[in-house]
Amino acid sequence: MNMKTTILGTTVGFGLLVGLASAAMAEEITIATVNNGDMVRMQKLAPQWEQETGNTINWVVLEENVLRQNVTTDISTGGGQYDIMTIGTYEAPIWGKNGWLTSLEDGMSDDWNKDDLLPAIAGGLTVDGTLYAAPFYGESSMVMYRKDLMEKAGLEMPEAPTWDFIREAAQKMTDRDADINGICARGKAGWGENMAFLTAMSNSFGARWFDMDWKPQFDSEEWKNTIDFYLGMMEESGPAGAANNGFNENLTLFQQGKCGMWIDATVAASFVTNPTDSTVADQVGFALAPDNGLGKRGNWLWAWSLAIPSSSKKVDVSKDFISWATGQSYTELVAGEEGWANVPPGTRKSLYENQEYLDAAPFAKMTLDSINSADPQNPSVQEVPYTGVQFVAIPEFAGIGTQVGQQFSDALAGNQTAEQALENAQSITSEEMEAAGY
Amino acid sequence: MARAISPRKKMMWTVLAWFFGLLIFFPILWTFLTSFKAEAVAIADPPVWFFFDWTTENYTAVLGRSNYPLALMNSIVIAVGSTLLGIIIAVPAAWAMAFVPGRRTKDVLMWMLSTKMLPAVGVLYPLVLIAKYFNVMDSRILLVVILMLINLPIIVWMLYTYFREIPGEILEAARMDGASLRNEIIYVLTPMAVPGIASTILLNIILAWNEAFWTIILTTVSAAPLTKFISSFSAPEGLFYAKLSAASIMAIAPILVMGWFSQKQLVRGLTFGAVK
């Protein structure tokens, strides 16, 4: 063998080795997520992480319920199709408890500061002291209102209104001839739709889903007051066909100037103040969700978070991506590319200490106050055996919540009375809970 | 002799036919129009019909965010593959039931149809576990087989109905001329049943194209067809109607064009036998 061949052989061999080594290091991960604005932005910016690390991402973007179905099937069969998934505050504690998720207590990058997370948000993603999901953006609910209509009604919105004030203001703002409805609120049936609103509202009326023996409480005076108040207010001042309205329908109504007030997710603030889509962008004011003087406000708590299923075989790379996407430097990256108003809100204390953000997002303080005032461990005035503000963190809740939601949606549509709806809700919940062995 | 229809009556029927035609076509037209609107215009109330700033930005956004060519190719392979595989299995089955029926043939046919009554979710876990065992999750071959199994009862039923219209004597004559069973099916029966087979193929391609339970749940990236592509454009928080419409138009366009070109064949096949 001559010298030339030896050198050639060595060079080729070395090249192959380097190639193999880098191929072994670079991994491909699959991320399942929902199609919310902040997630789409993350997908757009992710190539930066891919370039930095040499890894690649397969994105699977799905409708919320389809995502839930896909992901549950995958996890429960140990499919391992997904390495990272977007989950909510409802799933995190249940799936964490089932051993379906990988702990994020270690292995995250050094600059991913866990202590910087808002305690209320991190608390909702923690089971027995272990964090199972990293919050990507957090939200609560609050009142969004039209300053011009409020002024016309001769009223001034307090920073922390009561339900009575909201009802009175709604009546005064309503002008059916001009197609203006004093109040817009969710009516579409679903555990994450009308039941998110009504459960949070019921907390401020002193109601609860279950007593300490897991007995359903829809036959209580507190629930009756909640539903009577809700139906009464919506009848006086709500839009026509309110029983079909969810987040997007109410957003549309508000943006087109057809709502005096809208009580919904804090994340809506950036939509209603965006002049491209909203005709009332410069007239929007914010207030805390209403209360009844009982010590609890009617606001909820939710965080879209990133978690790693226990079936994933690429845990290290996945943790690296989550550290990047939910870390402080990502916030700065978004601010640099798209402005401070577009950074994912509601997860980190440091964001609310950043003057640039506070200047760019007029709703920032209200969002933070709303999030801080929600307590998933003690959601109601009374003692409860469950966690979750606008939901009950048990696997059966999604089914029960949706069935109960149908009853209240039906009552809102005028197909049955409040009493009938509550009676049905009580019997549905009792049956389901009994069948589930509670 | 054909019955004479007065011009007035004829016009009335024409108007009525157009009315129902447009009524059925309306959702597609509305989706098409919405796909060219800005998100804020798409949800405007009262609705905006034709006079708005037409924009192709939704199509650009949809194409920029997802791999449309891959999804399209997957849909084509899965729909055509599952249908052809189904036909290969169903032709002999339908032949047997149409020309050599036994005492229990009717029961077998009903039993086959009854499998369509089974809620898909009932067999979700066993199928996922089997797919996992054979390491075929997220593969086209898995969906080809599953969709073939799902549509097989319909394919057999349709072919059975068409085959029954063909006189058994012709096959007998072929047999007397010395044709083997294989040749009888391939060279005598199949050519005579071409319209029926063609419409069965077309209808099943459409059914497989639109199937949105298994195709979404058994795929992630590599085998994900257009149903999964559409599903990615709806959002729980935020406006999405215009982009969803653009994605829907892109997903239905190929099958719509196919339907257009094969309209005659499809109608002929579907009404085959009914007018005798």
TrEMBL record, chain A:
Belongs to the bacterial solute-binding protein 1 family. Residues 1-26 form the signal peptide. This is Sorbitol-binding protein /mannitol-binding protein. InterPro entries: Bact_solute-bd_prot1, SBP. It comes from Loktanella atrilutea. It is found in: Periplasm. It comes from the Bacteria. GO terms for cellular component: periplasmic space. Keywords: Signal.
TrEMBL record, chain B:
Residues 72-262 form the ABC transmembrane type-1 domain. Coiled coil: none annotated. It is a multi-pass membrane protein. Keywords: Cell membrane, Membrane, Transmembrane, Transmembrane helix, Transport. It is found in: Cell membrane. One of its GO terms (biological process) is transmembrane transport. Its main location: membrane. Pfam families: BPD_transp_1. SUPFAM superfamilies: MetI-like. The keyword Thylakoid does not apply. The chain crosses the membrane at residues 68-96, 108-129, 141-163, 184-206, 212-231, 238-261. InterPro entries: BP-dep_ABC_trans_perm (IPR050901), MetI-like (IPR000515), MetI-like_sf (IPR035906). CDD domains: TM_PBP2. GO terms for cellular component: plasma membrane. Belongs to the binding-protein-dependent transport system permease family. PANTHER family: INNER MEMBRANE ABC TRANSPORTER PERMEASE PROTEIN YCJP, MALTOSE TRANSPORT SYSTEM PERMEASE-RELATED. This is Sorbitol ABC transporter membrane protein /mannitol ABC transporter membrane protein.
